[in-house]
Amino acid sequence: MSSNPPPPPPSSSSSSIRPLNPTKPIPIFTPTQRLPSKPSFPWPQPPLPPHPQNFYNHPNNPSPPSTISKGAGLHNQQQKLISMQSNVPDPRTNEELTPLVDAHVAKVLEDLKAETSEEYTPDVVDDLTKATEKLAQTIDHTLLKPEATEDQIKALCEEAIEYGFKSCCINPSHARLVSTTLANTPQTITCSVIGFPLGATSTSSKCYEASLAILDGAKEIDMVLPIGQFLQSDYSYVYNDIFSVVRAAKGVPVKVIIETSLLKTQEQKIAACWIAAEAGAAWVKTSTGFNGGGATVEDVKLMRLAVKHNEGVKVKASGGVRTFEQAIGVIKAGASRIGTSNGVAIMGGNPPKKENGGEADKEAY
Ligand SMILES: O=C[C@H](O)COP(=O)(O)O
């Protein structure tokens, strides 16, 4: 076997390139230095590093450190993260959650059978016959298309201000622009989606994304439930995913999108709502609008019943709500908030758009 020739000595012309030092081993991250593959929940939240653009300019944030430790390796950081786990409550396990979920599902199915059509009267609007200011305050004016430009986001904000919508619901990269644009209109706030539209990013990523969106001015967070883990009945994962984001949001209300189009049974929809509410969600929300379906009156009613026993938890209908009649329909079923890219049409400002932000199936109605 031929041996490699020795590397040439560094020349003065290449003095800026540091030669390899064979006496100093290159750090290799061994498994013992990494987080356990199944860390106990809630996953520790990583300390927030400087926001690339505006972290240190933000009035709520600390001043930059005077020195930055370049020597801190992954090992030390991991140790710090692991030690943070001792400060958080014990995770809830599948063994603990499954019987609770089953009992709740049975109870809500009974409630569903027993409820008559007169039993629920919505109180979010006082007039169900016309588009009022109160109706506008139920609307999250939404633009979540990946191709949304800055100008379109600004136009969304202008419409939200003009019609008095509750929020502008946008992707996190637009949170700063939206919160700045809405700075003088307190009736319209910034709502950022998280883990959108798949819900499949890691819990830590969702926590981090939520923290940054809040630093950028988000006053509400709409996160997507980890759908695959839910469908395989890993309720522990789902509970602790939501719990961790709620904890990271530090009091900013979190809505949990259960993505009804991908949940096939009433039992699944009830279970998803219950877990979200138990984990601290302020809202349960029907759909992203991007996964082949949207809000239906039946689902909204079921979700209202599913969170009835969790005081204060509300229902948001989203995906495919395009007309005033549809908006009133979901409000009568139990929605206190509507996420829609057709807010202006609902208020009578223009005809509903055929193409919208999501892909909700119009036939779902
Ligand atoms: O979360 C909100 C939805 O993406 C809005 O869906 P939409 O564009 O069908 O109104």
UniProtKB/TrEMBL annotation:
Residues 352-365 have a biased composition (Basic and acidic residues). It holds the Pfam family DeoC. It is an enzyme of class 4 (lyase). It catalyses: 2-deoxy-D-ribose 5-phosphate = D-glyceraldehyde 3-phosphate + acetaldehyde. SUPFAM superfamilies: Aldolase. Its EC number is 4.1.2.4. Keywords: Cytoplasm, Lyase, Schiff base. Residues 1-75, 344-365 are annotated as: Disordered. GO terms for molecular function: deoxyribose-phosphate aldolase activity. The keyword Glycoprotein does not apply. GO terms for biological process: carbohydrate catabolic process; deoxyribonucleotide catabolic process. Residues 1-11, 39-52 have a biased composition (Pro residues). One of its GO terms (cellular component) is cytoplasm. Coiled coil: none annotated. InterPro entries: Aldolase_TIM, DeoC, DeoC/FbaB/LacD_aldolase, DeoC_typeI. Belongs to the DeoC/FbaB aldolase family. DeoC type 1 subfamily. HAMAP family: DeoC_type1. This is deoxyribose-phosphate aldolase. It comes from Arthrobotrys conoides.
